Amino acid sequence: MKRFGKILKWTFLSFGLFIAVALIYIHNLDFSMSDEDINSALSGLPFKPETNIASFEDREIHYVAIGDTSKPSVLFVHGSPGSWDNFLSFMRNPVLLSKFRLISVDRPGFGKSGIGKPERSLEKQAQLINRVLEIEQSSSSILVGHSYGGPVIAKMAIEYPDKIDGIIFVAASIDPELEKTKWFQIPVHYKVLSWILPDILYSTNEEIIALKKELEDLIPLWSSITQPTSIIQGKNDNLVPYKNALFGKKMLVNTSPRMVIEDINHFIPWENPDLITQEILRVNSLTDHR
Predict the structure, then answer these.
(1) What is the pLDDT of residue 2?
(2) How far apart are the C-alpha atoms of 64 and 59, rounded to whole Å?
(3) Model confidence over 198-226: pLDDT tens digits?
(4) 101-105 and 59-66: which strand pairing?
(5) What is the pLDDT of residue 208?
(6) Cα(83)–Cα(147) distance, integer angstroms
(7) Secondary structure letter of residue 216 according to DSSP
(8) 104: which residues sit within 8 A by CB, 6+ positions away?
(9) Measuring CA to CA, which residue among 285, 279, 19 is closest to residue 145?
(10) Among 30, 46, 61, 191, which residue is least crowded by beta carbons within 10 Å?
(11) pTM for the complete prediction?
């Protein structure tokens, strides 16, 4: 009996150790591309990729840029979770490269922008990404925001209208009424349990919990958006409901957004990139920066 007890004890200790090691490993997972990986992924192009860090107050934001600095910019903002390389295929697109300086950011809390240190404020996220435009000396830019990136680019268009020539919402989470906190998000919001989550998912959970209030604060500001706009949305999107697109159309009263509604899902940057490229070119044709 004593021997059985020892075996049971060591079994539990071994299992506990395994779980602890697994949690530490998962918690510190980092899928960020090294500079060598970035150069390899963007090799064979007429321009070399550039990586940089922009700082604002106590935060830093990492981004990758490629293309002619004399051309207008297209700046890509990923969702939650995500990273700059969610838009890697666009950074390699020869048509876009011939017309634009292409920039993609790691939003705060993700990638090399302080993974696991979420930024819950849309205003502060917009300020950080604006620093990227300042460093790039971009006076004219088209913004592309996927999922959570949608409200971020909306805030940028509102706060920095002179720098933004057009905006493209891609499966964007913009309607506060559609933001429902799930029961499982609350326990891991608190420190006693938040350590269980990998850093990337902690950042995701924190900013999504805060998003409803952030979107409510945006409601009276939508009318200040006057730039050419596109709304790309899938009817089969199970993550960001189709009604978000209808909300965007209703709120954008001082511009006429083009609605691109297809029988597709949430993962448009990967599965339907041509829709985004098409809208970048369309919005560019409506601007006066050239």
Answers:
(1) 54
(2) 17
(3) 898 899 889 999 999 999 999 999 999 99
(4) antiparallel
(5) 93
(6) 12
(7) H
(8) 63, 64, 65, 75, 76, 78, 84, 85, 86, 87, 88, 90, 91
(9) 279
(10) 191
(11) 0.88
Check: CB of residue 174 under 8 Å from CB of residue 248: yes
**Backbone region of residue 93 per phi and psi (left: phi > 0; alpha: psi in -120 to 50; beta: other values):** beta
With 0-12 CB in 10 A as exposed, 13-18 as middle and 19+ as buried, what is 174?
Answer: buried
The yes-or-no verdict on residue 102 having pLDDT over 60 is yes
**Per-residue pLDDT for 78 more than 70?**
yes
In tens, the pLDDT along 13-28 reads: 443 333 333 334 344 4
How big, in percent rounded to 5, are the helix, strand and coil portions of the chain? Answer: 50, 15, 35
Look at residue 188 in the predicted model and tell me its pLDDT.
60
Q: Residue 143: which of 105, 181, 180, 112 has the closest Cα?
A: 105
**141-146 and 229-234 strand pairing:** unpaired
Count of other CB atoms within 10 angstroms of residue 225 = 21
Cα 119-234-99 angle, rounded to 5 deg: 75
Q: What is the pLDDT of residue 196?
A: 74
- Which stretches does DSSP call E strand in the chain? 50-56, 59-66, 73-77, 101-105, 141-146, 164-170, 229-234, 258-262
The torsion defined by the Cα of 174, 180, 181 and 182, in degrees rounded to 10, comes to -130
154's enclosing H/E stretch is helix 149-159
Q: In whole angstroms, what is the distance from residue 100 CA to residue 172 CA?
A: 23
- Cis preceding-peptide flag for 94 (omega within 30 of 0): no
Span 251-277, average pLDDT = 97
Give me 245's structure tokens: 């697109």
Distance CA 122, CA 130 (A): 12
**What are the pLDDT digits (tens) for 225-247?**
999 999 999 999 999 999 999 99
